Amino acid sequence: MSGDNLLNVAGIAKEGSDTIFSWFARYQNAKKEGKDAVNGTVGALLEDDGSLAVNKVVDAAIRESPPIEFSAYAPLAGLPDFLDLCKTLAFGDARNTLEDLGFNFSSTASPGGSGALFLAANNFLERGQTALLRDRYWGPYKGFLQNNGQDYVTWPLIPKNKDSSHPHFAREEFESQLEMLCSKQNKVMVWLNDPAHNPTGLSMTPNGRSVCLNSFVNSAIKNEDVGHTLLIDSAYSLYADEPHAWADTILEEIENGLMWPENLLICVAVSLSKSHTIYGLRTGGLVCLHPDKEVTDRLNTVMSVTGRQTWSATPRVGQYSISKMHSTPEGGDAWGVERDRLKELLDTRRKSLIEECNNRGVSLNPTMDGFFAWIESDDSVKIAERCAEHDVYLVPLSGGVRIGLCALAANDMPKVAEALKIAMG
Fold it and tell me: Which of 63, 126, 132, 359 has the fewest C-beta atoms under 10 angstroms from its C-beta?
């Protein structure tokens, strides 16, 4: 192929276009043709009129920033106030209690949640090793891992043998895959997007999180020579009913006597794109929790150096303006009011879609929080194409179709549900 003599092996393997953006382009073309099309493709939160939803408190904080905060470099690790804020965004009210119990945090700024995922892939697995994901996952996970020379295996999002005590955690399959990886590698890493999972909107139950955490800890204890990293991707969690669900579970289990072996690390990938509606400012961070301060100090150095060698420094103005806004109770409360308004948009849309689908016998996956809903299909492209014939544009992915509640208006849901009924019939 053209350019093969210029590209390395990794470059030659990169092909294709982004599925989400290509289906969004099809929606746009349909609108240009005058069709009454509805948009369930994009992963950004839109108002009911189709305009981008912007948290006005965040917007004001950014615009009030001094010119120097737009133009200057940030420190390589990030602005100190922002690094401190990331710990709170990741762990909420549990943060202070965990610190009182002797736990320590590292915190590194990154270009969005994607940068945090890259930091983890680049440092917690060797090249040639394999990560563990659920079988429904955000597509770029694959690219972050492959660009670091890594592979992945999966365990089911929904258990085949359902257990009413943890209906949304496939414990047997998770433990089996962990055991397999521990037998082959000196490091294992799990990426878990919860609560408000992309692409389904599923959130695990408190008991499910407890069982998952204990399974992971038990694996670390059993395999003391294998480093165990559990990364919680919290991209959508601040729109969930339990925004700091994992922090609460971790604290509860520790207070109940959970052992924390030296080879166990828990990380949270923080993204301000969704929670603060600043997608384009690329602001996020990686926060890591461990009882040994020497470990977290080392991670601060390692992640800072990785950032320097990859993207130099994370953009400054988002770090400055958001940390300044949250530095006062008034600023944080005002942001929260706007965040609650946006969450209500999502909740209303989800409730409407579920009701309309139930009325038509359309079976959605369990969906509770965040930006998306999901319908399982072995031929997702066929389903999406049939929906498009009825001017409903969704995203076909591996194993099913993603429904962007974030982009659809509540009054679009009857049309979406009807298209899905026809498509699935």
Answer: 63
Collapsing DSSP states into helix, strand and coil, what is residue 13? coil
Residue 302: Cβ-neighbour burial (10 angstroms; 0-12, 13-18, 19+): middle
How many CB atoms are located within 10 Å of the residue 183 CB? Answer: 9
Specify the 3-state DSSP secondary structure of 380: helix
For residues 320 and 36, give the distance between their C-alpha atoms in angstroms, rounded to a whole number. Answer: 42
CA distance 40 to 374: 11
Q: What are the structural domains of the chain?
A: 9-55+332-424 (3.90.1150.10), 75-314 (3.40.640.10)
From residue 314, how far is each of 85, 173, 318 by CA, in Å?
15, 38, 9
| Cβ-contact 347, 340 below 8 angstroms | no
* Nearest alpha carbon to residue 388 among 423, 414, 359, 421: 423
| pTM listed for this prediction | 0.96
Please report the pLDDT score of residue 201 as a whole number.
98
> What does the pLDDT look like over 201-232, one tens digit per residue?
999 999 999 999 999 999 999 999 999 999 99
Q: Phi-psi category of 312—alpha, beta or left, where left has phi over 0 and alpha has psi -120 to 50?
A: left
C-alpha to C-alpha distance for 176 and 258, rounded to whole angstroms: 21
Question: CB-based contacts of 90: which residues, under 8 Å, 6+ apart?
Answer: 234, 244, 247, 268, 270, 285, 287
| Helical residues (DSSP H) of 54-147, grouped into ranges | 56-63, 67-71, 80-91, 94-100, 112-124, 140-146
231: nearest Cα among 111, 299, 131, 381: 131
Contact 357, 364 (CB under 8 A): yes
Two tokens, residue 310: 């990859």
Q: Spell out the residues 6+ positions from residue 409 whose beta carbon is closer than 8 angstroms to its own.
A: 38, 48, 49, 50, 349
Predicted confidence at residue 17, as pLDDT, reads 67
User: What does each C-alpha distance from 8 to 5, 13, 74, 261 come to in angstroms?
Assistant: 8, 9, 33, 41
Cα gap 270→82, rounded to integer Å: 12
Which conformational region is residue 322 in: left (phi greater than 0), alpha (psi within -120 to 50 degrees), or beta? alpha
Q: How far apart are CA 358 and CA 204, in angstroms?
A: 22
Structure tokens that stand for 312 in this block? 């130099």
DSSP state of 355: H
- State in Å, rounded, how far the first CA of the chain is from the last one: 41
Query: Which amino acid is located at 35 in the chain?
Result: K
Q: Identify the pLDDT of residue 234.
A: 98
Burial environment of residue 143 by CB neighbours within 10 A (0 to 12, 13 to 18, 19 or more): middle
